[in-house]
């Protein structure tokens, strides 16, 4: 997995969490991003963090931090663009900072699917839902993504329609893709053993 850069998307505003930076929110005495990094880092050759606020706190985690080139918290595709620009690998694996339950075989399963088919990007599917921010993308997509963003595109699913993607079913680990978006979600996580 040395040719994969793991990119933790922590560049949002945390609006549903009351404007709090979710990646730095404590759960069970640890920052949310710590949970994600613990599961992601062993699966990849390098790690980047995409953040647009509290940069010193994110840098203190020991990984390079990349910020969006597009102002105004433009969403996960802006984070992916920043990560692709900084990555020194052929592949970039994205996951959000608010999903502490990542499967330990996320990178391996996405890579296997990408290798089996001549696809641009592998994306997680659980049940009837595509999980669009859990992806393994070819870094060579950077020019196409940049063009999409420069034309005002922000919707992940709309960009995916222009690509050759492969969906990877994770029905056996559906709970692994739960995320913590609200204070209520955080309380539920805190109360589980």
Tell me about this structure.
With 193 residues, the chain is α/β, with parallel strands linked by helices. It has helices at residues 32-40, 55-59, 76-86, 106-116, 142-150, 156-160, 183-191; strands at residues 4-10, 26-27, 30-31, 46-51, 65-66, 91-96, 121-126, 129-138, 165-169. It is built from seven helices and nine strands. The strands form two sheets. It has a seven-stranded mixed sheet, sandwiched between helices. Strands 2-3 form a two-stranded antiparallel ribbon. A hairpin with a 2-residue loop joins strand 2 and strand 3. Helix 3 packs antiparallel against helix 5. The longest helix is centred in the middle third of the chain and has 11 residues, at 76-86.
Main beta sheet? 7 strands, mixed
* Mass-distribution shape: globular
Radius of gyration: 16 Å
Helix and strand pattern: EEEHEHEHEHEEHHEH
Helix content: 25-40%
Residue stretches low in confidence (pLDDT < 50, at least 5 long) are none
Order of strands across the biggest sheet? 5-4-1-6-8-7-9
Quickly give the structural class.
alpha/beta
Average pLDDT, all residues = 89
Our estimate of the beta-strand percent is 15-25%
Termini separation (Å)?
Answer: 31 Å
Give a count of the beta strands, DSSP E runs of length 2 or more.
9
How many helix segments?
7
In short:
This protein has 7 helices and 9 strands, in the order βββαβαβαβαββααβα.
What topology emerges from the helices and strands here?
Elements: E1 4-10, E2 26-27, E3 30-31, H1 32-40, E4 46-51, H2 55-59, E5 65-66, H3 76-86, E6 91-96, H4 106-116, E7 121-126, E8 129-138, H5 142-150, H6 156-160, E9 165-169, H7 183-191
Parallel strand pairs: 1-4, 1-6, 4-5, 7-9
Antiparallel strand pairs: 2-3, 6-8, 7-8
Helix pairs in contact: 3-5
């Amino acid at each position: 997995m040395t040719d994969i850069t793991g990119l933790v998307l922590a560049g949002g505003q945390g609006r549903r969490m009351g404007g709090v930076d979710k990646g730095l929110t404590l759960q069970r005495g640890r920052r949310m991003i710590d949970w994600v990094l613990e599961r992601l880092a062993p699966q990849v050759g390098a790690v980047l963090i995409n953040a647009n606020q509290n940069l010193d706190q994110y840098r203190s985690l020991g990984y390079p931090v990349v910020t969006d080139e597009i102002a105004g918290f433009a969403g996960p595709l802006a984070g992916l663009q920043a990560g692709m620009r900084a990555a020194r690998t052929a592949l970039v694996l994205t996951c959000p900072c608010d999903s502490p339950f990542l499967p330990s075989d996320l990178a391996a399963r996405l890579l296997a699917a990408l290798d089996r088919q001549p696809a641009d990007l592998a994306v997680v599917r659980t049940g009837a839902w595509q999980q669009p921010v859990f992806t393994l993308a070819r870094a060579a997509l950077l020019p196409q993504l940049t063009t999409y963003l420069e034309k005002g595109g922000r919707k992940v699913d709309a960009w995916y329609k222009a690509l050759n993607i492969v969906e990877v079913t994770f029905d056996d680990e559906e709970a692994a893709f739960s995320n913590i978006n609200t204070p209520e979600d955080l309380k539920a996580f805190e109360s589980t053993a």
